[in-house]
Structure formats: C-alpha cells, structure tokens
C-alpha cells in the first residue's frame, strides 16, 4: 500500500489507464481484472495521449482494434453480457464522428443495463486553437458539443477539466457500472489538452482494489407481504427475466419453483434461465412467446416477476395478463420492481428468493394448475418440432434454428438481435444449458449480431475456450454492420455466422402488410428507387474478409454446420429463406403499434379498427 503523502507524476491519460489496470473482481474464487481491456479506433482526439498510455499497458489491458465505433460498443455489450455484468470493456474513440458513432451502442447498453466504459476525445479545454477539426460549435454555448449527447444514454457522465478530477470520477464510474440497480454505460469526455496534462497523483490511488457486486437485502416487511399474497394464489406464475442470471440466481429460482410447484415462463432476456425440458419450464412469454406461456399468463391470478423490466414484448403491451391479476415485482432496481402498481420486493434475487421461499413455506400451487400448464407445454413442443422441421414448407428461419439446435454443443452461445430472428429464436430455440442464449431485444438493435458475437467470443474464450459462439443474422443486419467478421479473423476469435437472406427487411414488410399497407421500401424487390435488382454474394464478401464461407440450401445446412464446427476460424454459412411464408405463426400476444386513424385505404382502415377492437384487454393498473 502506498503512503498517503507519496505521489507519482503522470498525465491524465496515464493515470486513467494505470487505475483501470489495478481494479480487480473475484469471480468463483478467482481474482481477475474487472476491466478486460478495450476496443479502440485512434484519431487525433485520443491517439497521442491515451494511445501512449495504452501502449504501456497493452499486455494487461489488451486493446482490440475496431472497424467501426458502433461495432466496438456492441462488442463491449456482448462481452459484458457473457460475463454476467461482472466484467466490462472500455471503448475509446476520437473526438467528433468517432465518438458520435458510439451513441447507438451506448443506448443499447443503457437499455439493457450493461456496463461499458467510454473514454472519448473532446475539444481543447483552453479553446486556444478553436474551432478545431471535427468540433461541433454551438454559438451561444461554447461548452456544448457532441459529447453532451451521451448524457441521454449514459448512467454516468463526466468531462475531465482538470487531471485531479479523475480521483473522484473513475471510482464513481466503476461504482455505477458494477451496481446491480444502476448498472449501465459510463461516459468520460477527455479534452485533448487535458489528456496530456500532468499531475502529482497519490500513489495509493493506484493500489490494487478488489471489487464485489453488492447484494442488496430485501426489506423484511416486503418479503412478508409478498409471501402472504403468494399464499392466496390459486393460479400462480413466475416470470423469469435476465436479471435472474445477472444475480446468479438460477439455482435459487429453480429451487423456489420446485418447492412451491409454480410454473415458470421466460422473458426474451431470461430465455436461458431454465433448460428446455425442465418440468416447470412453460416456455417464453409475450409477443415473441409461446401458446403455452401466454395461455397460463391470461389466467394467472398472482404473478411473481423476477429480474425483468416488463417490456412490452413480455407483457403483450399489457394485454397478456388478466386485469385483476396481482403482480409481485422482485427486482434489485426500484424502478423496475414498482412497474404497473406491482407489490414491490426491492432486493437481489439470489437471497430474496430464498427469503421469500421460507416466508411462503408450506404453500404449493394447486396440482391441477401446474399439470394443466405442463400439458400446454407439451402441445407447444409438438408445434415447435414441426415448425422447425426442414421440408415443412419453404425454407425458414425456424428450420435453420432447428438444424443448429440439434447439432450444437449444449454450452455453445447463441446470439441474435433485431428483425425477425429474435422472435424466431425466442419461440423455437430449445435451451440446452443455462445462460447460453443472447437475444438482444432490449434495444432491438440491427448490427449487434456479429459485433456482439465477437465481444461474446472474446469473453467465452476466457471462460469456455472449447465452445462456439453462433450468430444468427438476417441479410439486412449483415448489410448494416459486418466488418467484425474481419475483426474476429484478425483476433482469432472464431464465430459461426448464419446469414439467412430473405431479400431485405422482411419482418417489417410483414408488419407493414399485417396493418393493411402495401409492401413498400422494405424488401429490395419492393423498393421503387431500386432501378435494378442485384443480389449480394454474402459468401464472397465474407471470404474477402478472411472467413471461410459457403452457400447452401436448407437441406444442406446440417452438413455445412458440421464443417463450420470443425473449422478453426470464423465460418459464414449463407442460405435463402422465404420472406413471406415460414414465419412462426403461433405464440403471439397482442402488440400495440401506431396505426392511422384516418386513411383512404380500406385495408389500412380495417386493420386499424381490428387493432383498436382488442385494446379493451389492455391492463391500466390493478
């Protein structure tokens, strides 16, 4: 330990990196750095000072060279998810457009409550050279710039105006990123001159520190009140969200459900809280859910919502539940626990489930309710088996999912995001092991798939290096962001990527048609300004970035997947799927979308009337 009066002279940038390198966390008895390194693209706003500091720490804080700043942020999010929010990566970008490119990925991390540290260049504090290259000027407020936009998408935001400031700012940023309730991205703006300014820092500031994730105890009165309500339930149900995994409460959730014989349904983020064949796993709930889960949700009288923010895809825009159903919100975040007038239990799920179970000792759900829930699940299993069978109609997402599901290792990690694939994976994927599914639907962000898969693979290589990361992406997301195929090849972080081509933004075309509108500007074939039809050779494109690739029919996907598993480098499999047929048609709750109240199009008018006719089911409160 350094003495209180001992100092060391460092630049601001050097001090930031030295501090990060000294921060540790203990996971399963093993001490490791809480910051796993970073993703960076250098420019004039971060290369000369922060780059110099990072070079001196490249062995302990590896810096992965990004191809696009947004992709870097997605990779950091995928990394944080795979590490269950217990480790994070930083992203560094240059002042101006490089930093601005991180806005979307910061929003994704914020929506998903994921830790990510952004160390971004900023304009000169002295303003002596103003206006500088890429500076965004606001004439009435010279302190206002691009970096201020991150205030809306960050849990912690600061601009360093003096080197001493980081002594308070960095611990505050880490405390935010590691807090179970307030977890999210932290943004630190680094003016180009301040990065290089020196200061005599206390040596003790750089002492090694071991962080621990706080486990907030639930209030005893809230536990007692929730237990009393649960004991009155004739048709109880548990909604298991992504927070169950982040709390490391999977075993406690399972034990609680088994002890009280309560059916469990999963959110999109909580999709791998239980293995597929657990007797109490009644399937995914909501808009992208299953008939079995949605059937019991409509009838449940007491709902225990654990670790979920109750997004509209979970609640069917609040039509999935009986209007008089009572909700117990068990969540470490007060904001999430209290949604829709829920009875709150604010606390960490791992100890709170044990305490709630003890308080509800002796209670068991009526056996006929649980047996009925299980019989509904059997029906859904039969539907999925047929829905994913190759040859059951035109080639489809569901068929591709079924092929991969049958051949993958139980510990392989599956990644999907945006478009039609999150719904298809959520509904059709049979979870083979706990925590193996990452369906990014918190921000539903196109382009996350490959970049997030790369970040997940970096994490997975540290945890389970002999397992694969499998990415499902559509042609639309591929076209938006694909350059991290090259990143994965450069860094020897193998991905298996399935590019399922349906000729454009097919799921939005489906929504367009389902609301009475004509196909317009979603499928390439229906884009009026596309004066010629050109097919993208995804195989050739992937090969150009160094990956192995092949194009197959659905009937050949299984053998192609085996070849991909056997390969030692990133492998891209391309296949055509039908844009109109083959969608999973069952398991959907109502979903509120805005439709025109006035139109001359009869089909659109009829669709609007039909949409509004079901609004009466929408839950307003208790």
In a nutshell, what does this entry contain?
The chain has 24 helices and 23 strands. With 622 residues, the chain is an alpha/beta fold. The chain starts with 6 loop residues before the first strand and ends in a 9-residue tail after the last helix.
Q: Can you characterise this structure?
A:
- The protein is an alpha/beta fold.
- It folds into three domains: 7-211, Rossmann fold (3-Layer(aba) Sandwich), CATH 3.40.50; 220-380, TPP-binding domain (Rossmann fold), CATH 3.40.50; 389-576, 3-Layer(aba) Sandwich (Rossmann fold).
- The chain contains 24 helices and 23 strands.
- The strands form five sheets. The protein has a six-stranded parallel β-sheet, with helices on both faces. A six-stranded parallel β-sheet has the order 14-13-12-15-16-17, sandwiched between helices.
- Strand 15, helix 12 and strand 16 form a beta-alpha-beta unit.
- The mean pLDDT is 96.
- It comes from Planktotalea frisia.
- Belongs to the TPP enzyme family.
């Amino acid at each position: 330990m350094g003495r209180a009066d001992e100092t060391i002279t460092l630049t601001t940038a050097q001090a930031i990196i030295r501090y990060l390198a000294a921060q540790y966390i203990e996971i399963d008895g093993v001490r490791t750095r809480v910051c796993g390194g970073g993703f960076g693209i250098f420019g004039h706003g971060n290369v000369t000072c922060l780059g110099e500091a990072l070079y001196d720490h490249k062995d302990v804080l590896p810096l992965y060279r990004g191809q696009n700043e947004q992709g870097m942020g997605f990779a950091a999010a995928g990394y944080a998810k795979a590490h269950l929010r217990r480790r994070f990566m930083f992203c560094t970008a240059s002042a101006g457009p490089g930093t601005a490119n991180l806005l979307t990925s910061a929003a994704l991390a914020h929506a998903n409550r994921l830790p990510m540290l952004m160390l971004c260049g900023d304009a000169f504090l002295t303003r002596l050279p103003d206006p500088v290259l890429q500076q965004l000027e606001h004439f009435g407020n010279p302190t206002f710039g691009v970096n201020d936009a991150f205030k809306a998408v960050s849990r912690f935001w600061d601009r360093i105006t003096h080197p001493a400031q980081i002594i308070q700012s960095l611990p505050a940023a880490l405390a935010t990123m590691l807090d179970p309730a307030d977890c999210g991205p932290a943004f630190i703006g680094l003016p180009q001159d301040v990065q290089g300014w020196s200061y005599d820092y206390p040596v003790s500031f750089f002492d090694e520190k071991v962080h621990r994730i706080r486990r907030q105890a639930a209030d005893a009165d809230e536990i007692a009140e929730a237990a009393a309500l649960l004991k009155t339930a004739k048709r109880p149900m548990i909604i298991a969200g992504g927070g169950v995994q982040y709390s490391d409460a999977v075993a406690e959730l399972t034990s609680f459900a088994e002890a009280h014989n309560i059916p469990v349904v999963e959110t999109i983020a909580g999709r791998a809280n239980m293995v597929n064949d657990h007797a109490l796993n009644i399937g995914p709930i909501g808009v992208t859910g299953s008939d079995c889960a949605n059937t019991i949700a409509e009838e449940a009288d007491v709902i225990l919502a654990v670790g979920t923010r109750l997004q509209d895809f979970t609640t069917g825009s609040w039509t999935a539940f009986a209007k008089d159903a009572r909700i117990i919100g068990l969540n470490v975040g007060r904001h999430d626990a209290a949604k829709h007038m829920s009875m709150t239990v604010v606390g960490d799920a791992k100890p709170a489930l044990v305490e709630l179970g003890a308080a509800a000792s002796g209670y068991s759900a009526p056996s006929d309710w649980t047996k009925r829930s299980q019989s509904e699940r059997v029906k859904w299993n039969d539907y999925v088996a047929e829905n994913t069978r190759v040859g059951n109609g035109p080639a489809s997402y569901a068929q591709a999912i079924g092929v991969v599901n049958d051949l993958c290792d139980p510990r392989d990690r599956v990644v999907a995001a945006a478009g039609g694939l999150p719904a298809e994976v959520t509904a059709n994927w049979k979870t083979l092991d706990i925590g193996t599914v990452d369906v990014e639907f918190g921000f539903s962000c196109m382009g996350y798939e490959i970049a997030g898969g790369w970040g997940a693979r970096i994490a997975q290589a540290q945890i389970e290096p002999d397992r694969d990361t499998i990415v499902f992406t559509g042609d639309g997301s591929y076209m938006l962001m694909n350059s991290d195929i090259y990143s994965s090849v450069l860094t020897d972080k193998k991905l298996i990527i399935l590019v399922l081509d349906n000729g454009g933004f097919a799921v939005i075309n489906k929504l367009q048609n389902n609301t009475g509108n004509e196909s317009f500007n979603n499928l390439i074939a229906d884009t009026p300004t596309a004066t010629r039809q050109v097919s993208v050779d995804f195989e050739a494109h992937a090969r150009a970035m160094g990956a192995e690739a092949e194009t197959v029919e659905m009937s050949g996907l299984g053998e192609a997947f085996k070849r991909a598993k056997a390969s030692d480098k990133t492998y891209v499999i391309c296949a055509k799927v039908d844009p109109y047929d083959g969608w999973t048609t069952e398991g959907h709750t109502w979903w509120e979308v805005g439709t025109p109240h006035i139109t001359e199009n009869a089909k659109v008018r009829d669709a609007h009337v039909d949409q509004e006719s079901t609004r009466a089911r929408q839950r307003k409160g208790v």
